[in-house]
Amino acid sequence: MLRNAVRPFAFVLLVTSLVATAATAGAQIRGRSVETTDTRWLLSLGASAAILSDVNDGATQSTWKFGNDPLMLYRGAIEKSLDEATTIGVAVAYGKVGFTLAPFVPAGNPRPGLEALPVECVNGCEAETDLYQAMAQFRSGGGPGFHTFFEANGGVTSFRNMRSETEQSGIGDGKGKLDLSGTLGAGFGYTLSQKLAITLVQDFGIGYHSKDDLPSGTSRSWRIRNTRAALRFSF
After folding, report:
1. Nearest to 101 by CA among 61, 130, 68
2. Which residues on adjacent β-strands are paired with residue 214?
3. Where exactly are the structural domains of the chain?
4. Most buried residue, 4, 32, 193, 201, by most Cβ within 10 Å?
């Protein structure tokens, strides 16, 4: 799982490094430094390595254990400039991620939720789900050359099309629910030209899962840590 998660993320870093090297060399050959201008719209495309904590789910009476291996998410954002250092926009992310499903109670217990699990998952199983995120984004900072910035994101996260890894049997109703979630982070970037920059962000976030049918005293919150790399275009 770790190898599968790191490979695409490493590819993104490699591409951005090659682009940065080529752009910097070109600027040096022409004998001038890279300059930037304020623009109206910006588009970011990249990937993130996410560490997600356990999620307790009352509908399936189980805990989803995502472990400590990075989860690969693909991310895009579109932003509008408010001034030279501030943008607002919308960001979306997607990834097919694996986890270990661990029921709260043993097989045969009549508590609700066990009927939502396929036979192979009644005592626990390896599973996977499609993770979606949609968030409003605020960004402050930037400038020509090397620069730093701050980001805040707030919106929803959804775990959909959950299934067992071996038999691909559906878990729950397959629709998932929308978890309120948000992140705060800081990063740095390097401007390659008037229209292109590379960025690297580290952010931390929290989400709130549905509390329906959760046993008393069971936490409904979960946490996420992202390391994101992206190419940022202006137009």
Report:
1. 61
2. none
3. 2-234
4. 201
Please tell me what DSSP assigns to residue 117.
S
N-term to C-term CA, the chain: 37
Q: What is the pLDDT of residues 122-147, one digit of tens each?
A: 889 999 999 999 999 999 998 889 99
Q: Which residues are within 8 A (CB) of 209 and not within 5 positions of it... i.e. 6 or more apart? A: 55, 56, 57, 177, 179, 220, 221, 222
Which of these, 130, 68, 122, lies nearest to 97 by C-alpha position?
A: 130
Q: Is the pTM of this model over 0.85?
A: no
Write down the architecture of domain 2-234 according to CATH. Answer: Beta Barrel (2.40)
Greatest Cα pair distance in the chain: 75
Interval 83-135: pLDDT, tens = 988 999 999 999 999 999 999 875 455 555 567 889 999 889 999 999 999 99
| Cα-only R_g, the chain | 21
In terms of phi and psi (left: phi > 0; alpha: psi -120 to 50; beta: otherwise), the region of 3 is: alpha
Dig out the tokens for 188 from the structure. 């740095």
User: In whole angstroms, what separates CA 134 from the centre of its chain?
Assistant: 10
Gap between the Cα atoms of 17 and 12, Å rounded: 9
